[in-house]
Write a structure and sequence with these properties.
The protein has 256 residues and is of the alpha/beta class. It has a single domain, classed as Metal-dependent hydrolases (TIM Barrel, Alpha-Beta Barrel). It contains nine helices and eight strands. Strands 1-2-3-4-5-6-7-8 form an eight-stranded parallel β-sheet. β3, α3 and β4 form a beta-alpha-beta unit. α8 crosses α9. The chain is globular. The model has no long low-confidence stretch (mean pLDDT 97).
Length: 256
Amino acid sequence: MELFDSHAHYNDEKFDEDRDEIIKEIYKSGVTKIVNAGYSLESSQKAIEIAKNYDFMYTTAGISPNDIEDFKQEDLDKIENIAKNQKVVAIGEIGLDYHWNTENKSIQKDVFISQIKIANKLNLPIVIHTRDAIYDTLDILKNKMQCKQKGVFHCCPLNKDLVREGLKLGFNISLAGPITFKNSKYADEIINMIPLDRLLIETDSPYLSPEPLRGKRNDSRNVKYIAQKIAEIKDITLEEVAKSTYSNTKKIFQIN
């Protein structure tokens, strides 16, 4: 059985001391593909440099809504240039975050739309980060900027409206550690809402460790706990979840 972690951050400083060792252990454990996600100019470039060392690792390039404090217009040209690297399979993570930032909503929207334009120009899907900004996110995708290759709601908030409308728009849904949390509302219902052929799994490492490892540094070996939860709720085998999510992720990111 092979697993695909569709979103992790091995460009994070929390892996600086043992990155290569951990990544090799992950591959041995059966997680044979990983998307190492960028979220700023620096992290996107770092993600590519790391991924060059591993045939099974791919990357995204983008500026997240939490990383636009010092945004300059020329940064968009730099992201477009970075995204032409053969390791890059999507523009992301991009989107809106009103949990941490409420004073710059208009800038967030402009940067989100501009990066969708880059994705369309390069024929790449997008990886969406949305937090406490669901309806503005959906409004942009419905009414402001169409996405040619669609993409994925990463670490998708467990909101029924978002999942329902995201699926209608042609996007895929990626679930992470929060579906395993004991206090997680609507997790079972959300899992059942998502067709198996539209579902991805991720760790968002080093964050959001699933139960029973909550609070510890996360890594891609723990993606199995997300797959197990989905299998349990959908009443199918772990192998079925692994096979389907692996295939879905390859298809979305156009990985041969």
